[in-house]
Amino acid sequence: MPITQFVLKVHSRCDLACDHCYVYEHADTGWRSRPRVVAEAVLARLAERIGEHAAERGLTAVRVVLHGGEPLLAGPKVFRRAAGLLRAALPEVCELDLRVHTNGVRLEEAYCELFDELGIRVGISLDGDRAANDRHRRFADGRSSHPQVLRAVGLLREPRFRHLYAGLLCTVDVANDPVAVYRALAELEPPAVDFLLPHATWERPPERPPGAGTTPYADWLLTVHERWEAAGRPFAVRTFDSVHRTLSGLPGLSEALGLEPVDLVVLETDGTYEQADSLKTAYDGAPGTGMDVFRHSLDEVAGHPGMAARQSGLDGLSAECRACPVVRSCGGGLYAHRYGGGSFDRPSVYCADLRALIDGLAARAGTVRRAPAPPVDLAGPGLTDEQLEELAVGLGGPETVRVLARSQLALTRTMLAAVHGSSGLARSEAWELLAELDAVEPAAVDAVFAHPYVRAWAARRLSGDPGAGLGTLAELAAAAAVRAGRGDSVAAPVREGVLHLPTLGRLVLGGGVREALVTGGRDGWTARTDGGAVAGSGDPRWQPRRKVGRGIAMEDVDPQRGVHRWPVEERLSDAEYLNWAGDFREAADLLDRDLPEYAAGLWAGLSAVTPLRRRADGRDVSSAARQAFGAVAIARPGNAETLALLLVHEFQHVKLGAVLDREELYDRGDTRLFEAFGLTPRPIGSLFQAVYAHLAVTAFWGTRAHGGTEPARARFAHWRALTDEAVDLLADSGALTPVGKRFADGARASVDPWLRATVG
Ligand code: SF4
């Protein structure tokens, strides 16, 4: 499993003396022997390690949190250096989400200006109102830190720095009034609040004040939840959002709740890698890995037994947790909180509270504001045994692919409902219009929601990507209104002068326009801008989405299409588009003639081809994105034969991705790397994908080898040998589930006849 989150300690001391701090006040004393400030050599080596890891694992985003002690004690130079080194080391396609978590005491204007320049977002620790915050968060001489923290948050709320404001971190103390804490935090208009349970273990249980009942932490959080819900969820709360998501079958959002494998590592100021900071609460040395940035790669860290234990999901939990009805939402709580009697093989010391909290939130889910779109079954309609068999051998006819498409649409709908549910909007005109259209014109809504990049946007939004703004919801509503043609109107954003109507096209309005009122009528649609100008589909500035052939869209206008590994092309000129369409027609005919058993499923499931930029070195480039069912992205190659090959190759990834949303094929906690197809070693999921894609590649060259040219015969011989080896590697990996084994058997059944073929 790749590591995508890094906590980088830039300073190992703190200017506050909070008595609940796990770094200085709990069992681990490692901080005493560490350098105060991270050294340049550590920063440089870590940046290289992260860059290598991102490139090898094909990561498209990593998050680095600059932490401490108190990170701002490290001084501006360290921040400038860390940001520069990290940005320079990461591959172009990998985004850096850089943050700092501070107590806020030293956050002055100059720091905010620096963070603005370096693109560093800021999270601040604050436990509530003054009385709550003063209970623990004081200077060593007993002075309150509350005024300084409020001043810091005030700076972040100023319009010029607002975009840097990442949120507040509040450690729960049940002695504080939850309503007062909620009000104090909500007044600061944070984009997000994290409520953290104070670190505790079975050896050192949490405070439970007399008379506070058996689940005081759950009661406290449920009171906060009530206020938050009544206020229309004005900001994200990871604890609540995580439980809501897991209750609907989605992955959790937090290491503290849910069964998602942990993909985070901590780097101390001396360059040693550690596991989660929270383990400092268990015993002296608990977070240690014995590894450091100079001698060990991140793949080695990911393979550390402690990391593996935190990534092992259900299998890594105690028998009591595995049998627990809320285990999918709870996940046994934070790993550190399970410690007792020398092991972590126990439920959380907060077990009773976690159970009561999850049950309480589940019970309230029936009374909270429902998403207007009808709730859907996450998995959607089922695959028959025959259809699964068809997919296992690498194929999948039109009806099978349509089942996958329906299931993907159901998943997208669920994700959109979760986006809206976590948006914090008390009322959303766009969402209400979508709900209304869904009741009367469901085909119009389905046509928009089935667009591949709608789910990609929803996934970015749900992962907390700040670049995935909510305006897309209004664009979707506007596109559905236009498709429905009932005369509905909705305001949609105009981004950098462009109004986007997903699945339809875009209207280039130019600078200065921020919003347009889109009306979808029987005789066409109009967009009225704030200045009063009206445009529509007949306007020369309208750039409709074009078709490349077979009813498949040429997607060169959708603003969400940049989810592929490679840079996408801008809108194609008419001449470029005609070249594309010509090559596509030829490629499609070739597939129909030579590879009909793959082509039939391809035409049933492929909905968009996204042009990519050509590489400077002339190599072919193509991609499928896990969150974009139905789309393949390709840089137009030099001939139709290669285009045909890239289409079937990438669509294999699309199909397998949709299968993986329904079926477990392999152990996702398996951290081993496998070498196949002459590529750098990859995890089991990538091996599975590579095998599946190369079944189509080998079949493609197989049809061209017989009676074909020498190069075609050579390619067939080459790919069947590599695919044969890779199928063995997959089958013998020991990581496959029963369904995964069926796929490996299916692959073997496809490969064996090729091995018997004589090709000269
Ligand atoms: S509620 Fe308790 S038993 Fe259930 S999963 Fe959580 S910690 Fe384990």
Task: Give a structural overview.
This protein is α/β, with parallel strands linked by helices and 760 residues long. It is 42% helix and 14% strand. The protein is built from 25 helices and 24 strands. The strands form four sheets. The chain has a ten-stranded mixed β-sheet with strand order 7-6-5-4-3-2-1-8-9-10. The longest helix is centred in the middle third of the chain and has 24 residues. It is globular. The two termini are 42 Å apart. Iron/sulfur cluster binds next to helix 11, helix 12 and helix 13.
Strand order in the largest sheet: 7-6-5-4-3-2-1-8-9-10
Question: Unreliable runs, pLDDT <50, ≥5 residues?
Answer: 367-380
Q: From the alpha carbons, calculate the radius of gyration and give it in angstroms.
A: 27 Å
Characterize the largest beta sheet: strand count, sense, and whether it forms a barrel. Answer: 10 strands, mixed
Determine the structural class based on helices, strands and strand pairing. alpha/beta
Mean pLDDT: 88
Q: DSSP strand (E) fraction? A: 5-15%
Instruction: Calculate the terminal CA-CA distance, rounded to whole Å.
Output: 42 Å
| Tally of DSSP β-strands | 24
Counted by DSSP, the helix tally is 25
**Helix content, binned percent:** 40-55%
Quick one: overall form?
globular
Present as ligands are:
iron/sulfur cluster
Task: List the keywords.
seven-stranded antiparallel β-sheet; ten-stranded mixed β-sheet; 25 helices; alpha/beta; binds iron/sulfur cluster; 760 residues
Put the structure in a nutshell.
With 760 residues, this protein is an alpha/beta fold. 42% of the residues lie in helices and 14% in strands. The chain has 25 helices and 24 strands.
